[in-house]
Design a protein that fits this description.
568 residues; alpha/beta; Elongation Factor Tu (Ef-tu), domain 3
Length: 568
């Protein structure tokens, strides 16, 4: 990486530093390494590199899957920016690095200055666990922690600025270990390469929708589709419980409306890649999910009495997120600015277009190279405009046109069937949360697994919203689905949810748990604590356990991999 006033100098070992052509003095090298699942950590890491270079650093940006721990230990200063994926796990592009780091020599990072910025969602149990694990491990390997790790919630745009400023100031005062040397001063002879993922966002597979059918009946409050995708490459090599990431493109209508607001024709070119702005907006930038940082930037020049600026200045994250909910980038522009936004600066503030992930509803044993998805279409009206989900709308269009799309597999870390096919499984998946359990049941049927299967399913109403009803009846008839417990919350005077059915079936559930059954939960993250409470009640009332004992029992199930959640 070069700057306007310097030339790049590399040692034989590959560590870079910047030398001013005017003074001949070295400036600080900084390696910003990121682990990112949806693009947020990558976006933040990229912004930090820009800030660092503006302050005279020679900063480089690298994904964690681009280097091994030995490579990282040869850097002069290391900043790791990482998100946490799934149930407390490393992002996919950080997992190979983490696997190697756990078996690294005990003093590999001795005297290497480092810092960690973690991103997470406090609604999840293992908040920022990936960053916590990396921070602790680098410290164990002898690294010099220059300041305490920062754990950021989803509002990191608004809360990370002070820490980043302090980090850059502190790194300037820290002398790095001599680059290219081991802790004892000897020269590094070589490194192990980190295992590269096969199909990833950077190198995706292709897929085509070959079948689409509407699952929900007329009158349903939700429109749910079953898609079957013919896939290529690694996307065929999944396990039930894994997800498929779909990389959508933004709608033509939204892009056209944005161009009109910005006063652009669409043929203008702003970046170094030579792409017209219309093409960039459609393929490269996240337009459906505005981030808090761009809102804060847009209101900087507004009067203090402007309602959105007042909301930002209040620091009330929940209120700001409530306002953002359902709004896309055009809504935010229309409500915060007149047509005075600099297009190039605006594009620089946008995040990369995120992929959307869906639990796979099929089994490779039963369905070959077709991957099935269960997708709820997103359509609503807010801020005076009709909105369509970026990916649900994209999939519907792709199904009609048979247009090829980019996809890649997202392996689950724990959300898989027990290795012992004779083990019983209890599956709790209301609404589209039933998707992975359809895959589980298809797998268990074809493999002739001997374990029993119990499914809890629910929605608001039975008639329009019972997904895969005929298939469930058939699986019951063939003996694959041993028990089916249903909860349609609005079909009787008092609301009944799946957690209520769990309590009602407590005696039998406890018998299954005592026999070694595994429990799986899939659905919106708000369901997770409700299921926890229902299972704790089952353990207390049917297992004669105190509250503490019930919590310990549930925790032991989690530790053993017998209680696993896929929440979103």
């Amino acid at each position: 990486m070069t700057t306007d006033t310097g030339e790049l100098v590399r040692t034989d070992q590959g560590t870079s530093s910047e030398v001013s052509s005017e003074t001949g003095t070295a400036v600080q090298a900084l390696s910003v390494l990121y682990g990112s699942q949806t693009g947020n950590a990558e976006f933040l890491a990229s912004n930090i590199v820009d800030k660092a270079n503006a302050q005279g650093y020679a900063a480089e940006l690298m994904s964690l899957d681009m280097l091994s721990p030995e490579d990282a230990a040869r850097k002069e200063r290391v900043l790791i920016v990482t998100a946490t994926h799934d149930n407390g796990h490393m992002p996919d592009n950080a997992q190979p690095f983490w696997d190697l780091l756990q078996s690294a020599d005990s003093d590999l990072f001795k005297d290497v200055p480092f810092a960690v910025l973690a991103i997470g969602d406090s609604m999840y149990e293992d908040f920022c666990k990936a960053g916590i694990d990396l921070d602790e491990r680098l410290g164990e390997l002898g690294g010099t922690r220059i300041l305490a790790r920062l754990d950021c919630d989803v509002d990191y745009d608004l809360t990370s600025g002070k820490w980043i400023k302090g980090m850059l100031e502190t790194f300037k005062t820290v002398a790095p270990r001599k680059p290219g040397t081991n802790p004892d001063g000897s020269t590094v002879q070589g490194t192990r390469a980190a295992e590269q993922p096969k199909s990833t966002r950077r190198e995706p597979d292709t897929a085509t929708v070959v079948e689409a059918r509407l699952l929900s009946a007329p009158g349903s409050e939700k429109e749910v589709w079953h898609y079957e995708l013919q896939v290529s490459g690694d996307s065929c090599n999944y396990r039930p419980g894994d997800s498929l990431a779909v990389i959508p493109t933004n709608s033509i209508e939204l892009v056209a409306d944005l161009l009109a607001f910005l006063g652009l024709e669409g043929s203008e070119v702003f970046g170094d890649d030579g792409k017209a702005v219309r093409e960039s907006l459609q393929d490269d930038y996240e337009l459906r999910l505005p981030h808090l940082g761009i809102v804060a930037w847009l209101v900087e020049d507004l009067g203090m009495d402007h309602p959105v600026r007042s909301l930002v200045e209040s620091g009330d994250r929940n209120a700001l997120e409530d306002w953002l909910w359902g709004r896309d980038m055009l809504d935010v522009l229309q409500e915060t600015r007149s047509k005075d936004v600099d297009p190039q600066e605006f594009l620089s503030m946008l995040r990369p277009l995120q992929h959307r992930s869906y639990s796979i509803a099929s089994s490779p044993l039963a369905d070959g190279d077709r991957v099935h998805l269960t997708v709820s279409s997103v359509r609503y009206e807010t801020a005076g405009r009709r909105h369509t989900g970026a990916c649900s709308g994209f999939l519907q269009s792709a199904a009609q046109t048979r247009t090829a799309m980019k996809v890649f597999p997202l392996p689950a870390h724990e959300f898989h069937l027990p290795p012992d096919s004779s083990a019983d499984v209890i599956m709790i998946g209301p609404g589209v949360g039933v998707a992975p359990f359809r895959g589980f049941l298809r797998e268990r049927e074809v493999s002739q697994a001997r374990g029993r299967n119990w499914l809890f399913f629910g929605d608001r109403h039975e008639r329009p919203s019972w997904l895969y009803q005929a298939e469930m009846a058939e699986l019951q008839g063939t003996g694959v689905l041993d028990r089916l417990s249903l909860a349609f919350s609005r079909d009787q005077q008092g609301k009944v949810y799946v957690q209520d059915r769990i309590r009602e079936e407590g005696k039998e559930i406890f018998a299954w748990l005592s026999g070694g059954a595994s429990v799986y939960v899939c659905g919106g993250k708000q369901i997770a604590p409700d299921i926890d409470e229902a299972l704790l009640a089952v353990l207390s009332s049917n297992g004669a356990m105190t509250s503490d004992k019930a919590h310990d029992y549930l925790q032991s199930m989690k530790s053993e991999g017998r209680y696993v959640k896929d929440v979103y």
